[in-house]
Automatic annotation (TrEMBL):
InterPro entries: WAK_assoc_C, WAK_GUB. Residues 1-21 form the signal peptide. This is non-specific serine/threonine protein kinase. It catalyses: L-threonyl-[protein] + ATP = O-phospho-L-threonyl-[protein] + ADP + H(+); L-seryl-[protein] + ATP = O-phospho-L-seryl-[protein] + ADP + H(+). Residues 224-262 form the Wall-associated receptor kinase C-terminal domain. The keyword Signal applies. Pfam families: GUB_WAK_bind, WAK_assoc. It comes from Escallonia herrerae. GO terms for molecular function: polysaccharide binding; protein serine/threonine kinase activity. Keywords: Glycoprotein, Signal.
Length: 277
């Protein structure tokens, strides 16, 4: 009798932290490999921000990012700087040029574009674009859209070993005889990297991890650095939700924000607000 009540009490004490934890742990936070998936991202629908729904997928501990231009591996999510780093296997780098229009480029769905955009210090280097490309239209005799971004650009990129021994006549094809073999641009200048639409054979993308200064293109970080952001009022809503032990999510039907408080959902936070049921 005594033993059983002690054991019940003991079990209750053991369970208590679990119950407590359930109510207060972030029910939406999860992991994929060694990457933490937290607001505004999520792997489950209803968690995170609706602008990031159906975006990330964890496949065998590899986090994949899926947008209209294709799938990318997520190498890193930096919550402090609100950026993520993506890898496209058909991205040219300093060792290899991938031609034949096989790369994804970078195109986001219009409804998602307010939330995701390549960072201002990410350079896209478009390779082998046709003279008819929209990239070169409206700028006769000049290549105005092509410019260095954060000290990175094609002039330096041509120094990579990937370019040696290729048929590209970099020096020969001056401005008069045709477009450059490589044109570097910030994402902002073109709004979408669609290789088909731009008439390009391939692309590379690199970003600088300021304030780190690197000397040459063999030291650049190749990949696509994407800034993510959510609305300011949504951000404060989520802070309040999380401060009261909730997980920030959204209503799957209306896509309106809700705060998940364990056994119930609140329209505001876990200390107040109406149940959204
Ligand atoms: C995560 O794992 C990958 C290899 O799977 C490794 O390259 C990377 O450095 C790791 N990142 C962290 C932050 O531990
Ligand atoms: C709370 O909302 C989430 C996301 O919409 C939903 O999956 C979950 O079932 C809801 N929970 C309750 C208790 O209604
Ligand atoms: C890229 O452009 C082509 C040709 O204009 C178009 O058919 C295709 O849908 C575009 N791709 C994306 C992801 O927008
Ligand atoms: C880019 O930088 C390189 C090296 O600093 C320079 O030679 C080149 O003229 C620059 N190109 C443009 C388009 O500004």
């Amino acid at each position: 009798m005594l033993i059983s009540s002690v054991s019940i009490l003991f079990q209750a004490l053991l369970l208590l932290p679990l119950v407590h934890a359930y109510g207060h742990a972030n029910a939406c936070r999860t992991y994929c490999g060694n990457l933490t998936i937290d607001h505004p991202f999520a792997l489950q629908s209803g968690c995170g921000h609706p602008g990031f729904r159906d975006l990330l997928f964890c496949i065998n501990d590899v986090l994949m990012f899926h947008i209209s231009s294709g799938s990318y591996r997520v190498l890193d999510i930096d919550y402090a700087y609100q950026s993520l780093t993506l890898h496209d296997p058909h991205l040219s780098n300093c060792d290899t040029l991938v031609l034949g229009n096989r790369g994804n480029g970078f195109v986001v769905e219009p409804w998602r574009s307010p939330y995701l955009t390549p960072t201002a210090d990410n350079v896209f280097m478009l390779i082998g674009c046709s003279a008819e490309s929209s990239l070169f239209q409206g700028f006769p005799g000049k290549h105005l859209p092509c410019r260095n971004v954060s000290g990175m650009g094609c002039e330096d990129y041509y120094g990579c070993q990937a370019w040696t021994g290729l048929g590209f006549s970099r020096l020969g094809s001056g401005y008069r005889s045709g477009p450059p073999e490589c044109c570097s641009v910030p994402f902002e200048a073109i709004k979408a990297v669609n290789l088909t639409k731009l008439g390009c054979q391939g692309y590379s993308s690199a970003y600088s991890l300021a304030p780190l200064r690197v000397t040459g293109p063999d030291e650049w970080s190749y990949g696509i650095r994407v800034k993510f952001s959510v609305e300011v009022n949504r951000e404060s809503y989520c802070k309040a939700c999380e401060a009261t032990g909730g997980s920030c999510g959204y209503d799957i039907d209306g896509l309106t924000g809700l705060c998940m408080c364990g056994s119930w959902n609140s329209t505001s936070n876990c200390d107040s607000g109406n149940s959204s049921l």
